[in-house]
Amino acid sequence: MNEQRRDILDMLAEGKITAEEAERLITALERQQPTASSPDARPKGKARYLRLVMDAMEDDEPTRLNVRVPLQLLRAGVRLAALIPPRALDQANAQLAKSGVPFDLTQLKPEQLEEFVEHLDEVTFEMDGPGAKMRIFSE
Fold first, then answer.
1. 104 shares a domain with 46
2. Count of domains forming the chain
């Protein structure tokens, strides 16, 4: 129960407002809040998937790429990376650097991933280009 609804019910219990007034106030509150069917109704920080959608033209044919990655897969990957011996991580980092990917696998920490996931709701990446549109977001 949210705080505003509780305040209304407290005022009703104390006799400060009538039941009809409480009902009108609660109805007004519900109109201000998104419905469960609304795409924005998911509580913040509760993203379950990372989504990449791309529409493009390839050889004058429309092409669509739609990738949905469960965030649990990312979490599992980070936990598994913690089990890799340091020497193997150093070798993997060297190969990544050799391929032009400046990423340090030893810096992957599960608690940092949770912080990242928590902020995914605030991020949407959209790119429009000649013949292609891409969008990355969480859901």
1. yes
2. 2
**Which residues does residue 61 pair with via DSSP β-bridges, in sequence order?**
58
Please give the residue range of the domain that contains residue 12. Answer: 1-33
Residues belonging to the chain: 139
Which residues neighbour 104 within 8 Å (Cβ) at sequence distance 6 or greater? Answer: 93
- The predicted pLDDT at position 44 comes to 52
* Choice among 29-38, 90-99, 100-109, 114-123 with the minimum mean pLDDT: 29-38
The 3-state DSSP class for residue 23 equals helix
Query: In the chain, pLDDT over 70 holds for what percent of residues?
Result: 86
CB of 126 within 8 A of CB of 134?
yes
20 in Cβ contact with 28 (< 8 Å):
no
For the segment 25-45, the average pLDDT, to the nearest whole number, is 60
Residues in contact with 75: Cβ distance below 8 Å, sequence separation at least 6, in sequence order: 110, 113, 114, 117
Do 60 and 6 lie in a common domain?
Answer: no
Same domain, 24 and 48: no
Q: Is there a single domain that holds both residue 11 and residue 69?
A: no
Considering the entire predicted model, what is its pTM? 0.48
